Amino acid sequence: MDNQSGLTRKIRLIWNGLAGNIRFLRNKVFYDIKPFLPRALQIYVRRAIVKRQRVAGAGLWPIHQGAGKRPKNWSGWPQQHQFALVLMHDVDGARGQNKCRGLMELEERKGFRSLFSFVPKDYQVSAILRQDLLRKGFEVGVHGLKHDGKLFTTEQSFAQQAEQINQYLKEWGAVGFVSPSMHHNLNWMHKLNIEYDTSTFDTDPFEPQPDGVGTIFPFAVPGSNGQPGYIELPYTLPQDFTLFVLMQEKTIDIWKNKLDWIAEKGGMALLITHPDYMNGSGGTVLEEYPMALYEEFLDYVRDRYKGRYWHPLPKEMARFWRAIMAAKRAEG
């Protein structure tokens, strides 16, 4: 490496560090004052910010071409399906929990199964609902302790909350974690007793931590000091709140175009939606969108790609990926 290249790299590292610190402070201030801001004002401000970010992120969102590169020695999905489809739902509040049964029934009718992740310290999570989801072949996960943006404030506080998260994982028979607001530190996550995590994305400049992982495939996060490690499942389709609440999109064209690209690349289409923001009556209010848009997406996948996609639960995807990683290690 010549001196100029070395200097450029050092400047880039310093800049990235400063940018990360600025984001941390900005996010901390936002979550500190958020409880005192009217919800309508929060949405208005975020819409204005996203509008600017969308212009700045043109060419990298919703499709980042580099993310389509296949893993080394990739042998394909089970039964040689063209691509994989994983569905998740983050249940942010009690309002969302009340809509879970309707969403579960919709997916059952369409032939799909998904993960429902709950926030145990923000509302009373229904044990009956959890049991019904499991009985019907769905999956249950933990979505943080509280949806307050403070899980990763310090490593010490994360470790303390991790102990409680592990208790809920054990009590619920859950093996996966989905981080609130996609805050993440993949090294700290080893403190969780999980098989997989979803706190990253291939590309999404609108998240509080916009550092995309640049792949539409799962990847292993190896453990250290005897830790087993886990599988990271990045989401690869834009979240519903971003599209329909902040951007106020009226169609699912972005979902369809991104799904078509993922299918072409043979990757994993992982979609996170939120029952909290779905409106089953067909109307649109401040932070809700018609559930019919999600139903249209399911119909699009089923009709356009019938027989061409593998549709595992997140835990099944993680176990598949761990198995192929083990096989590659055995092959040397």
- State the share of residues found in helices, binned by percent: 40-55%
Question: Roughly what fraction of the amino acids lie in strands?
Answer: 5-15%
What would you report as the Rg, rounded to the nearest angstrom?
Answer: 20 Å
* Poorly predicted segments: none
Topology order in helix (H) and strand (E) letters: HHEHHEHEHEEEEHHEEEHEH
CATH topology of the largest domain: TIM Barrel
CATH class of the largest domain equals Alpha Beta
Mean of residue pLDDT? Answer: 91
**In total, how many domains does the architecture comprise?**
2
Q: What would CATH call the homologous superfamily of the largest domain?
A: Glycoside hydrolase/deacetylase
Secondary structure: number of strands: 11
The dominant shape is globular
Largest β-sheet summary: 5 strands, parallel
State the separation between the terminal residues, measured CA to CA: 31 Å
Question: What structural class do helix, strand and pairing data support?
Answer: alpha/beta
Determine the number of helices (DSSP H or I, runs of at least 4 residues).
10
- Which second-level CATH architecture of the largest domain applies? Alpha-Beta Barrel
